[in-house]
Amino acid sequence: MGAVQKGMLHTCYHGKTGRVCSVTQHAVGIVVSKQVEGKSLAKRTDVHIEHVKHSKSRDSFLTRVKNTRETAQAIKGMHIRKATKYLKDVTLKKQCVPFRRYNGGVGRCAQGLDVDSLVIEHIQVNKAPKMRRRTYRAHGRINPYMSSPCHIEMILTEKEQIVPKPEEEVAQKKKDADRNGLPTKGPTGIYEKKKD
């Protein structure tokens, strides 16, 4: 089932609201619920393309209102084919969605992290607000039936390679300083010039 088609012509479709199920060049297939003997049956009907004015789609309880709002504003007014191509390019990271209102702390570009070298640096679990339900017991009693959800946050970082400190270079620098007659630290910690 797809978008909602509202307000079809009264002469043909009795002004009912249905759901778009198929689209052809000359018509749109719509499923309309019909009441028969107290039951609601789904009836398919074709609406001629000249009768279709607009199409509405709605989904509730989506996550990330800020990201979704910015994506919606980016595709508003676009042709449907162009919008589909644009959203596919966004998922493939070829194009980006401009953040205009909720732009605090938005990353400038995606980080190319090496998945094989990622280490869990920080993980934290906090209590979330408990959700209250009830369970029915014997003799008309009611007990609480609580759920204990939680918030989890995790930070991954790339593991740094441990590089051993080179010992030979320090000795080589000391030798060069001795050869050139540059002052070096003596046993007292004071720079002394080498005497010949």
Q: Between the first and last Cα atoms, what is the distance in angstroms?
A: 96 Å
In helices, the fraction of residues equals: 10-25%
Strand content: 25-35%
Alpha carbon gyration radius: 35 Å
Structural class, from secondary structure content? alpha+beta
Number of helices: 4
SSE pattern, N- to C-terminal:
EHEEEHHEEEEHEE
Shape: elongated
Overall mean pLDDT stands at: 76
Which residues form runs of ≥5 with pLDDT under 50? none
Strand order in the sheet with the most strands: 1-2-3-4
How would you sum up the major sheet? 4 strands, antiparallel
Number of strands: 10
GO cellular component, one term: cytosolic large ribosomal subunit
Family: Belongs to the universal ribosomal protein uL22 family. Belongs to the eukaryotic ribosomal protein eL21 family.
Region (Disordered): 160-196
Keywords: Ribonucleoprotein, Ribosomal protein
Report on the structure:
20% of the residues lie in helices and 32% in strands. It has helices at residues 10-13, 65-75, 80-91, 168-180; strands spanning 4-5, 18-23, 27-36, 39-48, 118-127, 131-136, 142-147, 150-158, 184-185, 191-192. Among the domains are: 4-51, no CATH class; 63-101, no CATH class; 115-158, no CATH class. Residues 160-196 are annotated as: Disordered. Keywords: Ribonucleoprotein, Ribosomal protein. Belongs to the universal ribosomal protein uL22 family. Belongs to the eukaryotic ribosomal protein eL21 family.
Secondary structure elements and pairings:
Blueprint (H helix, E strand, L loop, with lengths): L3 E2 L4 H4 L4 E6 L3 E10 L2 E10 L16 H11 L4 H12 L26 E10 L3 E6 L5 E6 L2 E9 L9 H13 L3 E2 L5 E2 L4
Antiparallel strand pairs: 1-2, 2-3, 3-4, 5-8, 6-7, 9-10
